Amino acid sequence: MVQSKIMEEAEELCEAKTPEDIAWETADLFYFALVKCVANGVSLRDVEQQLENRSRKITRRPGHAKPKWDVSAKEAAAAAAATAKEAAPVTAVPAAAVAPEKSGRICMKSYKMNALSSEQQSKLLLRPIIQSNDIMARVKPIVEGVRERGDAALIELTAKFDGVQLESTVISAPFTPESMVLDDKTKAAIDQAYDNIYKFHAAQLQDKALVVETMPGVVCTRFARPIERVGLYVPGGTAVLPSTALMLGIPAAVAGCSEIVIATPPRKDGSIVPEVMYVAHKVGASKVLMAGGAQAVAAMAYGTESCPKVDKICGPGNQYVTAAKMLTQVNCFVHEDPRFACLWMKCNCECKKKRRAKFSDSLFHCVD
User: Fold this and answer.
1) Would you say 278 and 190 are in contact if contact means Cβ atoms under 8 Å apart?
2) What is the CATH number of domain 134-344?
């Protein structure tokens, strides 16, 4: 009885056309589906758990109907069989993806959405969803390994995750011209972007301290001081991101940070993309750490034999990078935004009884 009603209501839902009919038939289908669940001891929580499990999957099987129910597939097969004798098979060139010209320059892969199937669109827009507890459990051993074993752990993890066997983990300034070889057009674009970003951030510098007398005898002062050592994380792997290096490195240079460490994953040949190396040279970076992911964050947070420990880490990253920042933030300030400054506040207070109370300097982290 229940099975017959579920099949009946599902068929009526498929045939419904107006929004009112679709809502009506959906309610009927839900009702008999719940009857089926109750009769077999299945709760709504069980159903919710199944949906939650599916949401965590990175890839799923295609949403095609089974052959028994796939009417469109049967019709298409019949039509193809009828016309098979009339025309020879033609190999079509996919029009969905517009392939970039192989010029050696950075090219963005583009797609025409109206030429993609719904399945292809969903695949392009899919983002991996992993529970935070699962990520923390994976990242914690990585962070602890780098903290305890330093460069040796970095080399092992880079070989494991990036497939590159490095002899050393850090490139120190001055960087060789061979590591920054770019065509003229790319170099000019980076130079133009550098000038524009530098001009904007240089305009934010505070030449004078802010001094406010809030009441007679109470003077508050605020002034900026650069953080001494900063680590800038520039993602890699599937993309080349000199833009990220510029947006992180230029504020650090303008602020006057004495040491700038840029961390970015190496290529398969063990080198760093020349675009990022060129930006590292322009912003005055002292080190380029050839590592990515959680291991790079741990190396900058705790320091290794070759990578200096930094006071602040900036830059975007995936869920593993974010988890590593959360685990290491006790050792250094961690933030996505590169606009950083240290603010000191000193107040000298004098009460009416002529007794003076001097408050000690306090360090504040400010993101404007």
Assistant:
1) yes
2) 3.40.50.1980
Domain ranges of the chain: 1-54, 134-344
- Tell me the angle at which helices 293-302 and 319-328 cross, rounded to the nearest 10 degrees: 20
Query: What span, in angstroms and rounded, lies between the C-alpha atoms of 132 and 319?
Result: 8
pLDDT value at position 169? 94
Q: Which residues of the chain have pLDDT under 50?
A: 88, 90-95, 97, 337-368
Sort 72 into a burial class: Cβ within 10 Å, 0-12 / 13-18 / 19+: exposed
Cα Rg, the chain, nearest whole Å: 30
Number of H-type helices and E-type strands within the chain? 12, 13
Residue 350's pLDDT is what? 34
Q: In the prediction, which pLDDT does 69 show?
A: 61
Cis peptide upstream of residue 308 (ω within 30 degrees of 0): no
CA-based nearest residue to 338, from 264, 249, 258, 259: 249
The pLDDT of residue 75: 63
Picking from 48, 1, 8, 46, the residue whose alpha carbon sits closest to that of residue 29 is: 8
pLDDT of residue 21: 82
pLDDT in the model for residue 172: 96
Is 262 in contact with 253 (CB distance < 8 Å)? no
Q: Model confidence over 159-190: pLDDT tens digits?
A: 999 899 999 999 999 999 999 999 999 999 99
Q: How many Cα atoms within 13 Å fall on the side-chain side of residue 349?
A: 10
Beta strands (DSSP E) in the chain are: 97-98, 110-111, 170-172, 210-215, 218-225, 229-233, 259-264, 287-290, 312-314, 333-335, 341-350, 356-358, 362-366
Sign of CA dihedral 117, 120, 124, 127: positive
Q: Is 362 exposed, middle or buried (0-12, 13-18, 19+ CB in 10 A)?
A: exposed
